[in-house]
Every structure is written in C-alpha cells, then in structure tokens.
Amino acid sequence: MSNSARLALLGPHGLDAEGIADFVTALKAACESGDVAAVILRLAATDERGLTARVKSVAPIVQERGAALVVACPGFTGDLAAVAIRGGADGIHVDKPRDLKDLRGRLRDGRILGAGGLETKHGAMEAGEAGIDYLMFGGLYPDGVAPEAETVRVRAAWWAEIFETPCIAVAAAADEIAPLAATGAEFVGLESGLWLQDPGAVERAQRAVRESEA
Asked: Residues in domain Thiamine phosphate synthase/TenI (predicted)?
C-alpha cells in the first residue's frame, strides 16, 4: 500500500442519459490531468437496460486510463450488481446498506463492493466485517447538502488508524483535501463540484495531497 492517498472522482448525483455525453467529456479531461484511482458513477434510477447502457458508455473511458469504475444508484430497487456486471463496471457502491453479505457473495471475480452513508461507528464496523472493499466517509447527500467537514475528517482518521479495510474520505471543498489526506485514508474523494468543470482540479488535488505529507 502506498503512503500517498490516491484520488477518487465522484460523479454528480442523478446522472441521466442526457447528461452522460458531457460527463464523459469532462471525465476524460480529468483523468488525463493526473492519477485517478477510481470513479464513482452516481446514476439516476431507471430500468436495468437503461442503467446498463449508461455504464457501458462510461466504463471504457475510465478503465482505459487505469482507474476503476464503481456504480451507485440510490433510488434503484432492482439488481445493481447485475447492472454493473453487464455494463462492464468494476463494482458497485451502496449507501446505508442492509444486504452487504449477499452482495459480497454475488460480486465475484475481483469486483468491488463499497459502502457509504454510515453515520455511526457501529454501522461502519459492521460493514467492514461484511467484507467490503472500501468504506466511504463524506460525500454530498442527494439533496446537495454536505456533511460537516470536521466530522468526515475525524471519522476517516479513526478508521484509517484502526482498520485495514481502505477508506475514501470525500472533500466537498478544495481546502478539505490536504486535511483528509493527512488522516491516513487510502483515498481522497473529490466531489463533482471540484472537478467536473475544472480539468486542472486533479493535478491541484494531487499537489495538496503531497503537501499534506511534507
């Protein structure tokens, strides 16, 4: 494991078919400006066929640049694991999960299972015990509200110090990146507002991560 936190890019909540083309264009520019470990694609709910088509349009862009694509769709009541597999994604992300053990059993062949939205330490530990590949702290809620930055920092530091399962600590503002990297979190997530309209954001975020280690 590297001592330097790597970056994960979070897409906007509720990305629909109309927004995919512009998203892909921005994503290409962001991934080419620096080292991106993963992209969390947060889709608007529709049927499985529609979701699979969106995943297929994004997955090659991400994977050709050496990053993993993880699919999230909070309002979807169908089989998100099947969508990810058929769409060629690397895994799925679920918020406030209840069926992690079942999902862990279905996501084989190295596919990623990530979890977030867990607001208690007990819930986070239960998720870790279920065999997730990462736990995410922070990230905008679907209504656009950000959790308290200090709460995210404290939770990430607690987790990184005690547990081996990697965590993503999400920055909603540029000045949160360095403090989150300093927690020892394996990944710093960038909310879409930080990078979607600004291709240079990835390079600047990497600089902030390096400065946090100096």
From this structure: 21-190
